[in-house]
Give the backbone structure.
Amino acid sequence: MSSLKLKGCMTKLSVNLNKVALLRNQRDVGYPDVIEHAKLVLEAGADGLTIHPRPDERHIRKSDVGKIAAFLKDRPKTDGKSIELNIEGYPTEEFMELVLKNNYDQVTLVPDSPSQRTSDHGWDVQKNQTTLKDVIKRLHEKKRRVSLFIDPDPTVIEYVKQVGADRIELYTGPYAEDKTPLKSYIETAKAAQKAGIEINAGHDLNLDNLAHFIAAIPYCTEVSIGHAIISDALTMGWNGTIHAYLTAIDYGQKTANKKAA
């Protein structure tokens, strides 16, 4: 199947490469190669890449960050646009030193402890205002966009605005598990939009729920997807998988447009 980049998709697809790195790290043979798969993902039509370097380096390693950043910096622009790199992580001083010395477009701050298997909750922004203000100021000085990983709660947006974040990333795990109603995400997204804050989303989004989510929040700027998209690529290959996810995004957008008409 040839690669596909659907036209008119406002929501960008960022592919999280952590699970590619996790598989590589199981053996000392150097493959699968993260850069090679980054190339395949982008050639298939994805808009960007996401990486989440954790302190124990169980998947993305610190050395990967510079290599991926350099790869994207040297990559020719497609349709006049650069591919974006989103780096996720908890803002320890080690993490800050890592991201401040590398080229990327967006950092997504997550409230993970070092022992967590995966992200499972958003920031208590009110409680962490002082820390987040300082971190965001440092990142803004480097002209980097900052997104905060938050739970679907419209009351949080007031504090997101106060600390100066540019975007939020809605933690969609509870949506995927049918534990939190879509209404909560819609209300939070509307509050963010009203406050001039852009909306990203991520965690457990897949081909079963992505289109429905985009249909409800068509102004979602970016979705970051890793586990499901890597799993699907094992059976469909990168071209087929990226095509399927872009199609789901496009279907969600068209569904929203029909409802609005």
In short: The longest strand covers residues 84-89.
